[in-house]
Amino acid sequence: MTGLKGISVLVFLCCLFSVIVGDHEEEKIPGLELNFYRNSCPNAEQFVKDEVSRSTLIDPTTAAALLRLAFHDCQVDGCDASVLLSFSNGLMTETESEMNFGLRKLHIINGIKSSLERICPQTVSCSDIIQLAARDTIHLSGGPFIDVFTGRKDGTLASKERADKELPPADISVDKFIEIFQGKNITLQEGVALIGAHTLGIGHCRNFEKRLQPPGDPTLPTGFKLTLLVICSNPFLSNITFETNDLTTFAFDNRYFTDILNGRGLLKIDSDISRDQRTKPHVIRFASDQKQFFRSFTSGFLKLSNHKVLLGKQGEIRKDCRFVNN
Ligand code: HEM
What we know:
By secondary structure, this protein is mostly helical. The protein is built from 13 helices and two strands; from the N terminus they run H-H-H-H-H-H-H-H-E-H-E-H-H-H-H. It is globular, with a radius of gyration of 21 Å.
């Protein structure tokens, strides 16, 4: 009997182990590791976390800004910190693209980098700092802790044209939305979870005002439409007037999904995924099961943050995130 019990415990432990180990097996890519800087800069991850916590305490909107920054970096030519370059061989940079309108808090990453340069010169990449900061903001806002891999190198090129082409507009179609994630081996369920990042932050009127102009978007409930019409009443201010993406703007929770099912999707794409037959089942699931949302977000985010990374001898470790090294 005792022997049988022993075997059952062993089988249970084996299963548990394989679930834990196998959990993010799919998202692993050779060259990236957990805690890549454990020997070269042991305090790097803690330092990022402390700085992100400090900045978020001063300005709680920081979390949303840093999360969007991580997506916009990976979306254009992979997660290589190209979004931070303020000079690119005389060409226009990514932040000059209209698609990056509203991108904020880049200086926080630049600040973390310059402090880390004093402790561990030319060791920690800007692209890793972006992903670590996003991971910390998600967790600080009540979301899952995502053990992101590190060891990325920084790119040496940035392109406004690529940003124009690769970054999704607020009124992207559901077909194109699905394509964006498919190209990164991200499942539809994970893609829907990832746009659940709109559980944080805001959207400016310029990104949804078309929905308010005649003939108007018939899917917008009258009450919500009236609220938005008041907020966006002055068309000359549409770059500074805004509404929150969901009703719990500082909390990383599944409220976004309940909101969009109730017709309170701010951007056209937020609304559309709550009605399209391919995405709706996932929206319904996440609205009623926050744990499932967190699980799918975690696996999707790991894939996103590993997208087209530069490794080993590729790229460089920038000394200043805003410029390539000489
Ligand atoms: C693929 C479809 C997506 C589209 C079309 C889209 C579009 C937008 C737009 C237009 C805004 C408003 C920007 C502004 O007016 O300031 C926004 C905000 C935001 N997006 Fe997305 N997004 C998408 C996916 C994602 C993903 C995958 C993430 C992260 C994983 C993300 C994170 C955010 C966050 C956190 C904000 C709020 C930013 C802030 O408050 O500063 N988005 N998005």
